[in-house]
């Protein structure tokens, strides 16, 4: 196991940013930390990279404790923070050479060329960083994270500020790097995890509220199968009959206007365990009532549906003093109640 976090809790004074967070990541796995802004994703990454210690709990990277063996952990990690610490007066090549020296990279010239090529900034090698666009600065930040060819990559919002083409290139690079490395990336962009990550940890208000593959989350957290059904028949009568059918947990008619031939479409959620057997029952009810079954198809909740379901539930409101916290470097960070 390359990364293991156990019961991580982080307080800023009386303010709670993380509460009992646990997860793990294996070699060759891309793990996504997904959550709304202020959920605790960046705090988790700062702990994993040795930037700050947890208040309680512990984390290990490649078998080394992030507090007791901080130097060994940092030797094995490439870190791209959300706000990449670049030197605007340096050229791209000079900056990466500087980072390579700081990380004691052997064959530094080759490593710089490889990192620039991988991050697609080789054609900007002699450009001054301060004159680059935000997207290119993100690429330079990714290049510095991978220059030492680390076992573990920790990427905080790696595609922020990139255009669509750059986003696709960065996702492809992350997938390629993840074949023989462990990668943790944080994001609040749903397509990022569904298109890049093997597993997802959803964090909200400082707590882990779900962990699974993107497909597994959709299936497990939906709690039931969902069907879309189009029926020719009287709307209210069809709705009443389907709602009364054993195994139907919820029924909702689409808001589309009624057709002249009285055709209506419903979304039907099955109770857990009802599954495909319910489809046969529903079809029998419709046909037996003399109505026309135009269409029935099984659908899965998207990751967006799951994310909204998990993160928009009404939490206990935080007190004003718990709404924000100030980190040790003076930066204000939204934290959990």
Mean pLDDT: 85
Radius of gyration: 25 Å
Principal-axes shape call = elongated
Kindly report how far apart the N and C termini lie.
Answer: 31 Å
The main β sheet shows up as: 6 strands, mixed
Explained architecture:
The structure is a single chain. Mean pLDDT is 85; it is low at 314-337. It is elongated, with a radius of gyration of 25 Å. It starts with a strand and ends with a strand. Helix 3 (92-102) packs across helix 4. By secondary structure, the protein is α/β, with parallel strands linked by helices. It contains 11 helices and 16 strands. A 6-stranded mixed sheet has the order 6-7-8-3-9-10, sandwiched between helices. A 4-stranded antiparallel sheet has the order 2-1-4-5. The protein has helices spanning 41-48, 70-75, 92-102, 108-118, 134-146, 164-177, 190-196, 214-222, 235-243, 275-288, 303-311, and strands at residues 3-12, 15-25, 30-34, 56-61, 64-65, 77-80, 152-156, 182-187, 199-204, 207-212, 226-232, 248-253, 263-270, 292-299, 324-326, 332-334.
Summary keywords:
16 strands, four-stranded antiparallel sheet, single chain, about 325 residues, alpha/beta, 11 helices
Give a brief rundown of this model:
The chain contains eleven helices and 16 strands. The chain has helices spanning 41-48, 70-75, 92-102, 108-118, 134-146, 164-177, 190-196, 214-222, 235-243, 275-288, 303-311, and strands at 3-12, 15-25, 30-34, 56-61, 64-65, 77-80, 152-156, 182-187, 199-204, 207-212, 226-232, 248-253, 263-270, 292-299, 324-326, 332-334. α3 (92-102) packs across α4 and α4 (108-118) packs across α5.
